[in-house]
Amino acid sequence: MRIFLSLILLISFKSFAVCEFSPGIAKVVSLSGSSTVLFKELNLLNHQKLIGISIFNPILADEFAGKVYPGGIFLSREALTQMKGSLVFFDEGRELSKMFRSISGIEGEEIKTRNLTPSEAMMATIKVVSNHLSGCEDKIERLKVKMRALEKELLEKIPSGLSVVFYLGEFRSGRVPEMVMANDGVVKWLREKKKIQTYPSSLPYVNWSSKLMMSLPENTLHVAIKDSGRSGEKEIKRSSRKMTLVYPGSLVPGLTQMEALLYWARSL
Fold first, then answer.
1. pLDDT tens for residues 191-235?
2. pTM for this structure?
3. b/e string for 231-258 if b means 16 or more Cβ within 10 A?
């Protein structure tokens, strides 16, 4: 009987556990897009310990009331002084890593998502961030289920044998952006699943060449990706074989990039 009651109490406690930052953490700053998205999914954007995010994170103005930093290597000395005593999450980068190592009073956590698929990027982010969370296990499991559902629908929505090239930026006066997303993020994942034919390169991002473009089928779609960030704008623009995908977090590794491509695939 006592064992039965103990199990009930344990299950009840787990069900009502509050997802929050660990007790030993005083302040948190999230400059990484994937960590900020994770905090949004875990309903931690308004937690009193989260004092700042990056202006490049896909969070609307009314979703976060704290400090919004210019982000990256453009952080001012004043901003860095404000972060003292904080746990700071930042995206992979030599300069950023060097900068945060050189400042006493800041605990920096680098999140490495380069060359990863969306699911891998999300899991890499969870691995780093979860060490500083308490009571979030159930929400994290639900987030994993959400990602699997997005993956399943995206695979179903994309027509078999689709030839498509994804660009960073947008079409301007008919001009095609110079940089191609060839083998990173959701494009890498779709290539691994053999769902698309795309720009032939093993590099994550590359400046395209006319010669290689000519090797693709004539009916190839050309899709420019614009991350609308804090504006939250969502739009699909189409002209013949050219399309522009505008979506918040479309260039952030992980969940929002998967959501962005699904938003695009639903329009096909």
1. 999 999 999 999 999 999 999 999 999 999 999 999 999 999 999
2. 0.90
3. eeeeeeeeeeeebbbbbbbbbbbbbbbb
